[in-house]
Amino acid sequence: MPSPPSPDPAPGMEIVHLLRAVTVELGLHSARFAQQNGMHPTDVRALIALMDARRAGEETTAGHLGSALGLNSAGTTALVDRLEKAGQVRRVRSGRDRRRVVIEVEERAVELGQAFFGPLIERSVELLRAYDEGQLAAIRGFLGGVREAAAEGRA
After folding, report:
1. pLDDT attached to residue 6
2. C-alpha neighbours within 13 Å on the C-beta side of residue 125
3. Could you give the CA distance from residue 88 to residue 66 in angstroms, rounded to a whole number?
4. Cβ(69)–Cβ(46) under 8 Å?
5. CA neighbours within 13 Å on the CB side: how many for 19?
6. Are 34 and 40 in contact (CB under 8 A)?
7. What is the C-alpha separation between 44 and 36, in angstroms, rounded?
8. Measured on CA atoms in the order 73, 74, 78, 81, is the torsion positive or negative?
9. What integer best gives the mean pLDDT of the chain?
10. What's the pLDDT tens digit per position in 141-155?
11. Interhelix angle for 13-36 vs 41-55, to 10°?
């Protein structure tokens, strides 16, 4: 007769395992989007990075995008060329420094993403409505801390 599984030794491991499972599911969801739209998964990550920058009011150069995605210069150029050819992004002169070229997301890419990811986003926001402000602050703090810890490995 098999023995029952032993409990995780450290408090919080259940949440860590759940976060890992959520990460896997989100990755699979993103991969389905990429496959359905003839994209590489890196294309999707690039579009997300560009949309996040736009939401923050930041301009994104190809160099910054490549750095954020862990790509070299040649890989970044190929990525931007591919996205531009597909009508997902455009290269434009910076509004702050006309010597710089920045990458912007085309509205059709935003609409495509909203059509696919919108239901998941809406469901997530609905789930968050069940939490009070203190709980939301704790969730933000935890997720922000995990993000920072993961980003440390990149540096």
Report:
1. 62
2. 6
3. 17
4. yes
5. 13
6. yes
7. 12
8. positive
9. 93
10. 999 999 999 988 776
11. 110
- Looking up tokens 């999707």 gives 44
Check residue 144 and give its pLDDT. Answer: 97
The pLDDT assigned to 153 comes to: 74
Residue range 82-104: mean pLDDT, rounded: 92
What whole-number distance in Å separates Cα of residue 54 and Cα of residue 116?
Answer: 19
Question: Is the CB of residue 34 less than 8 Å from the CB of residue 42?
Answer: no
Q: What's 52-113 look like in SS3?
A: HHHHCCCCCCHHHHHHHHCCCHHHHHHHHHHHHHCCCEEEEECCCCCCCEEEEECHHHHHHH
Tokens of 52: 């996040």
Element (H, E) at 48: helix 41-55
Spatial contact of 76 and 69, defined as CB atoms under 8 Å apart: yes
